[in-house]
Amino acid sequence: MNTAVVSHALMQITPRPELVFVRGAGARLVDDAGRSYLDWVQGWAVNSLGHSPAVVVEALAQQAARLINPSPGFYNQPALDLAARLCAHSCFDQVFFTSSGAEANEGAIKLARKWGRVYKGGAHEIITFSNGFHGRTLATMAATGKAGWDRLFAPAMPGFVKARYNDPDSVRALIGPQTVAVMLEPIQGEAGVIAAAPGFLQALRALCDEHGLLLIVDEVQTGCGRTGTLFAHEHDGVRPDIMTLGKGIGGGVPLAALLARESVCCFEYGDQGGTYCGNPLMCAAGLAVMQSLARADFLARVNTLGEQLAMGLRRLSQRFGLGEVRGRGLLLALVLSRDLGAEVVLQARERGLLLNSPRPDLLRFMPALNSTHAEIEEGLELLGGVLQQHF
Ligand SMILES: *Cc1c(COP(=O)(O)O)cnc(C)c1O
Predict the structure, then answer these.
(1) Any catalytic annotation for residue 247?
(2) Less Cβ around it within 10 Å: N or C end of the chain?
């Protein structure tokens, strides 16, 4: 296919390879020339159960035939069931569904500001973190801590200040009368898989309790089994006030969620909404994903697979003199000693392995949570072949 001609009608927002993907099954993706790839990107940690998993396909087909969209002004069964399941398996009491992670985070920011208006004398400022990532809407870009993002579409939305990740003192220094919340990723994904240090989330919880602030965790990337627990903040034993989910929750379809504890749920009629919010088609897919994650041993298996992958990556790092392997469960990164990320991604693709390099000097790994041990070995082998050419 001549993608150069075809792609002209699509806005160019990222460099894309001259390939069109036409099929996917589990860990594999197939292009229009019939070539098969082992996919360790999985839509950026979106396809938690791999490509076109039977449970999601079936849930979508059945729901599509039954009811696609009654209107967000009416209840539907999949939304009720998925909300109940999310609350039953977390410390949260209420859910608002959205179509993207950024939209869920927008909702979290609005909820925190509303809570500040109602309960905290109009406090509205949210402390976020350098190198954090929260999405691409104007408010979530302002919350994001990527260098230069505050000037990209100036004027930036006010109301966000940036602390240093894993540095509770830098948070304390920013707390003032206008502060309403602290918002962070339990593992900074786009920053290069930087995990909260042991005790950091607890320290933030204590600070929030001391100053009457809300603790918001953005688990769009880390949630829904990705790090080996249902939600990543469980590793730290803290109870946040608000959590956002996205990516993996839909198993590939546009579904995300804003969850909050009862005491924080202060939206009044008209404050929040959205045409597609909580539509039964997407919620049916989310329900199928959550049911799969709840199966006995599913999360234990994510941990075993994660250990297998981390161990293999450490072996490669040793063999080629590369940097550290970090992350948790099946959200891992390998630090290269040079800025070769883009090149390794390209050459891995030529060998049939799809990889992601969110920073020039590292690779990020996000295989399907239901990968097989053989697939993990296969990917490590392919990666070893590429690294051999460079190191
Ligand atoms: C991907 C991501 C988002 C944005 O989600 P979209 O669905 O792309 O809007 C927000 N926060 C984190 C931590 C993410 O990884």
Answers:
(1) yes
(2) N
Output the domain CATH number for residue 101: 3.40.640.10
Q: For residues 303 and 289, state if they share a domain.
A: no
Ligand 1 atom with the smallest distance to the CA of 256 is: 7
The two tokens of residue 168 are 């509770």
> How far apart are the C-alpha atoms of 321 and 27, rounded to whole Å?
29
Write the residue with the smallest CA distance to atom 11 of ligand 1: 134
Question: Which amino acid, one-letter code, is at 27?
Answer: A
Give the domain-ending residue among 235, 263, 293.
293
State which ligand 1 atom lies nearest to the alpha carbon of 254.
7
311 phi, psi to nearest 5 deg: -65, -45
Tell me how many domains the chain contains: 2
- Which one of 216, 243, 247, 364 would you pick to mutate in the ligand 1 pocket, going by the greatest count of ligand atoms within 8 A of its CB? 247
Q: What is the pLDDT of residue 6?
A: 59
Do the Cβ atoms of 357 and 341 come closer than 8 Å?
yes
Kindly report, residue by residue over 25-80, the tens digit of the pLDDT: 999 999 999 999 999 999 999 999 999 999 999 999 999 999 999 999 999 999 99
How far apart are alpha carbons 184 and 219 in whole angstroms?
Answer: 9
Per the annotation, the verdict on 162 as an active-site residue is no
Task: Give pLDDT < 70 ranges for the chain.
Answer: 1-6
241-253 pLDDT per residue, tens: 999 999 999 999 9
Per-residue pLDDT at 7 = 73
**pLDDT at residue 2, as a whole number:** 53
Of 92, 96, 129, 133, catalytic:
133
